[in-house]
Amino acid sequence: MKSQKGKYNFEWKQGRLSWRASEYSVYFDTGKDFLFERRGTGKFAKVSKDELFGRHQ
User: Fold this and answer.
1) Distance (Å, rounded) from C-alpha 36 to C-alpha 6?
2) What's the CA dihedral at 18, 50, 34, 37 to 10 degrees?
3) Whole-number percent of the chain with pLDDT over 90
4) Mean pLDDT of 7-25
5) Quick one: which of 9, 36, 53, 57 could link to 28 by a disulfide (CB 3.0–4.6 Å)?
6) Exposed/middle/buried for 39, CB within 10 Å: 0-12, 13-18, 19+?
7) Ramachandran assignment for 47, one of left (phi > 0), alpha (psi -120 to 50 degrees), beta (any other)
8) Mean pLDDT value of segment 40-55
9) Would you list the DSSP string of 1-57?
């Protein structure tokens, strides 16, 4: 289970078509020190804001 740490599954009742069609990463802000990055249909990974902003500098 350690290999799955920070990864989550979720099923939307009515997901946005634009999220599925996006060629880029989609992030969801929780208002905390981390975001959830969409990694496929119903799959998300927890990403710290510091890590994400460090990647895009």
Assistant:
1) 9
2) 30
3) 0
4) 76
5) 36
6) middle
7) beta
8) 82
9) -GGGTTEEE---SS--HHHHH-SS--EEE-SSSEEEEE-STTEEEEEEHHHHHHHT-
